[in-house]
Structure to design on (499 residues):
């Protein structure tokens, strides 16, 4: 059983804050400024940040959900959500058991994981051509 | 195992798309504590990587390190790591036993001489000719020296292999030592912790596969990306330390408010590890989040560094204590322990709260 199946809910309001969310929001703003000015993408690995209990949930609430969300199935599901701040994407990768293996904020126009990869495009083309050839032979 | 198998070829055979592989590399980047943007560079390197042969030797240990790795929260990721390496010998995990098991080790050593990775968990007993721990009739020392000769690098998994750990704690009856006390002519990376964090083990393996070399190490031979900062510096309770807000006992208001555990003996300020960010049990929490101080298990001699419940600011002087105990003699020692037990029993019958002083008895 995955740990995520155990119904423990961490409350966003814990009664105290150690102030790391404010620092994180400032970092996001700095990345967003760079994106707007130079078009350069940035990312923040949420796994490497020391969140106090409840702060992660508070961050979810603060960033909210924007216009785009995508679901990817590739060795387990992945969730890609544009937050209410366009250009700030919340990307969460799960394994097939449903555990989080990577969790990050990407500050970019479109996260790379959504794009079709050149190797996969080439493979798909090969497959499509083979199918066309089969039909011609029939 | 096919030596010429690259990871890219294996993934293609399994029908894994490049997007799925990119996702995997993002997870690997996170694991190695590299910037998430490094994923595409990792993908490029890993696709061409050969599967190295790995020989895992378990010496004077409790198998906790192997448990940590095999029961880690990202089984798919760990499975892929096992796809990326060829684990040719691990006497707890392998199906073969007896002569067959030892033969598989000898075969791997012969075929990949100079190229295989040696992973070691457990310390090595040196007293009385090393008789306190043997495998297939051979001492740990003998086996380590033989297998280390042909290894490209050695990974000492856990505090026992890295620093001697609990077997090395006073009075150390078996003369237990660390891998680095015996092998001095090979690159050694220490992944300390009792047990070590599973993603740190796989992260180091992934780093070796990706870059073909061991990661940058600190002065104790530990990868800087995981052991570069202290638990204290990455602790979410650190702001309370800065404000001078401390829990004074395990059930006072400070403890309930989640204040700093320094005065209750937390070893976070002198302990280097990734627990505060990587956390345990699928990222659920780490000891300080459960209200108990860090015991410093990834540091050398953590078992002899004074009580887990004495503040770091209190002089531990454990050597003096040991000498005193030897001087006053066994009879007095017994009397003291009887007296302590009587005190504990009295406290129990009076329903008083157990204090830190009680825990130290």
């Amino acid at each position: 059983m995955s740990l995520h199946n155990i119904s423990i809910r961490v409350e966003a309001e814990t009664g105290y804050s150690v102030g790391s969310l404010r620092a994180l929001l400032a970092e996001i703003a700095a990345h967003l400024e760079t994106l707007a000015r130079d078009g350069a993408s940035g990312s923040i690995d949420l796994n490497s940040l020391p969140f106090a209990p409840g702060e992660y949930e508070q961050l979810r609430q603060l960033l909210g959900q924007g216009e785009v969300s995508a679901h990817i199935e590739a060795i387990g599901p992945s969730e890609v959500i544009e937050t209410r701040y366009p250009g700030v994407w919340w990307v969460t990768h799960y394994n097939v058991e449903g555990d989080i293996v990577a969790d990050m904020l990407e500050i970019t126009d479109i996260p790379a994981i959504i794009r079709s990869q050149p190797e996969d495009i080439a493979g798909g083309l090969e497959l499509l051509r083979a199918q066309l050839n089969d039909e011609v032979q029939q | 195992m096919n030596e010429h198998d690259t990871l890219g070829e294996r993934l293609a055979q399994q029908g894994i798309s490049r997007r799925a592989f990119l996702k995997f590399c993002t997870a690997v980047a996170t694991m190695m504590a590299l910037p998430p943007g490094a994923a595409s560079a990792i993908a490029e390197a890993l696709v061409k990587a050969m599967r190295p042969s790995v020989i895992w030797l378990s010496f004077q240990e409790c198998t906790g390190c192997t448990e940590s790795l095999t029961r880690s929260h990202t089984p798919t990721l760990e499975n892929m790591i096992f796809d990326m390496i060829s684990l040719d010998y691990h006497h707890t995990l392998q199906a073969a036993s007896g002569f067959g098991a030892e033969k598989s080790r000898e075969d791997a050593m012969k075929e990949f001489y100079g190229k295989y990775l040696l992973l070691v968990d457990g310390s090595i007993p040196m007293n009385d000719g090393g008789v306190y721990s043997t495998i297939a009739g051979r001492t740990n020392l003998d086996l380590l020296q033989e297998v280390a000769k042909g290894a490209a690098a050695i990974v000492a998994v856990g505090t026992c292999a890295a620093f001697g750990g609990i077997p090395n704690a006073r009075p150390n009856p078996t003369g237990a030592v660390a891998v680095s006390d015996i092998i001095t002519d090979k690159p050694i990376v220490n992944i300390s912790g009792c047990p070590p964090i599973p993603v740190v083990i796989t992260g180091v393996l992934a780093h070796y596969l990706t870059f073909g070399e061991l990661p940058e190490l600190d002065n104790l031979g530990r990868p800087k990306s995981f052991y570069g900062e202290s638990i204290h510096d990455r602790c979410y309770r650190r702001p309370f330390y800065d404000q001078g807000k401390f829990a004074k006992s395990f059930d006072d208001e400070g403890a309930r408010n989640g204040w700093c555990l320094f005065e209750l003996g937390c070893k976070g300020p002198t302990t280097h590890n990734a627990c505060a960010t990587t956390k345990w049990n699928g990222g659920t929490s780490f000891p300080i989040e459960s209200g108990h101080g860090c015991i410093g298990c990834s540091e050398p001699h953590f078992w002899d560094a004074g009580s887990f419940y004495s503040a770091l600011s209190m002089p531990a002087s454990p050597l003096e204590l040991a000498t005193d105990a030897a001087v006053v003699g066994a009879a007095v020692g017994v009397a003291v322990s009887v007296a302590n037990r009587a005190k504990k029993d009295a406290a129990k019958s009076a329903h008083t709260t157990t204090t830190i002083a009680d825990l130290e008895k």
In short: Residues 238-304 of chain B form a domain with the Cytochrome-c3 Hydrogenase; Chain A, domain 2 fold (CATH 4.10.480.10). Chain B touches chain A through 40 residues (CB under 8 Å). Strands of chain B lie at 53-58, 86-90, 116-121, 124-125, 134-135, 138-139, 151-157, 176-177, 188-191.
